[in-house]
Amino acid sequence: MIWAWLIFLGFVFAMLALDLGVFHRKSHVVGFKESLGWSAVWITLGLSFSILVYFAYELHWFELGHSVDAVDKVVNTGKLAATKYLTAYVVEKSLSVDNIFVIAMVFGSLAVPARYQHRVLFWGILGALMMRGAMIGLGSVLVQNFHAILYVFGVFLIFTGIKMLVMEEKEEHPENNPVVRWIRKFFPITREFHGQHFMVRAGSQWSREAAEPGVEPKPDPIVDAAPAGKWLLTPLAVALILVEVTDLIFAVDSIPAVFAITADPFLVFTSNVFAILGLRSLYFALAGLISKFRYLKPALSLILVLVGVKMLAAKWLKIWLGDSFNLTVLAVIIAILATGIITSIIVGQKDKGGATPS
């Protein structure tokens, strides 16, 4: 099975190297059309991977499809593995949309130049892949050895879904963020952006580089006061750290949601990876439109509650629904997500049509 992991990770790193090293080698503003194109590429790759999953588990490539899935106590056939992968992918993809709200808030409050946002998200998602890999490995061990942990996950997801539905979001400035306050205790942070750099050395050319080409760099009293040669973090580094912390917080919700579907670590990890890889392009496509989808958050809350209930009542639901159990769960999740999006569009058009000019 180790070869399946190595080939998949090799493909992921090759795609990331192609992304940053070729298509985004020079920092630029990612336009709406470009972001839609990349979103289509990543979604197509994510969905197409289910075909490989089917054949890999059906034909037992790289020894896949031999072990018992700790969630439903059955061996995953090609059809079952592909269904579980698609369900996990849709859940992760839909929950990652909620992450866009927070990322947009971080970039807006720090006034991160649009041309450098892709760079922050690239390295942020690379770090997220490593963090999630570790969390999935730990979660898989817990589920395999302590099956009762699934019921804890189920209650947690239901609680999280209800809390997401009833609690109001508060916009918090990064200056008041406890993570930023903790960083300031150990590292000085520059006041201005210094090009695309996450760190600058006082007295170097980097410390005199402007955030925008052709624009005279602003004086930075933090850098000027620092001893020559001292390293300082830039606001771009603060944005990167906050994006990493945000993903870690969201992973605490989303990874248990996937373990409600399958405990197969390969299916959990690959579905997570494809959902995260498309998050950057999805951010640039939806960041300006996300506020218009007012019923998306209630839909995501309902999905979390549904997955939590599925985790708690899986035994009875499987008896009731039979072999179509996993397909039914996938169909209901897609229906909830589609209803939230369509309702938001219809209500938004009615509000726009009913608005009277002032």
The low-confidence parts are: none
Tell me the distance between the termini: 65 Å
N-to-C order of helices and strands: HHEEHHHHEHEHHHHHH
Q: Averaged pLDDT, please?
A: 77
Q: What overall form do the CA principal axes indicate? A: globular
Largest sheet: 2 strands, antiparallel
- What would you report as the Rg, rounded to the nearest angstrom? 22 Å
Helix content: 55-70%
Polypeptide structure, described:
- The chain starts with a helix and ends with a helix.
- It has 2 domains: 2-168 and 254-354, no CATH class; 190-233, no CATH class.
- It has helices at residues 2-23, 32-58, 78-110, 114-145, 149-166, 178-186, 221-225, 235-259, 265-277, 279-286, 296-312, 314-321, 325-354, and strands spanning 68-69, 74-75, 199-201, 231-233.
- The model has no long low-confidence stretch (mean pLDDT 77).
- It is globular.
- It has a two-stranded antiparallel sheet. A two-stranded antiparallel ribbon has the order 3-4.
- Helix 3 (78-110) runs antiparallel to helix 8, helix 3 runs parallel beside helix 9 and helix 4 packs antiparallel against helix 9.
- The protein has 13 helices and 4 strands.
In short:
With 358 residues, the protein is an all-alpha fold. The protein has 13 helices and 4 strands. 69% of the residues lie in helices and 3% in strands.
Q: Features of this protein?
A:
globular, mainly alpha, two-stranded antiparallel sheet, 358 residues, 3% strand, single chain
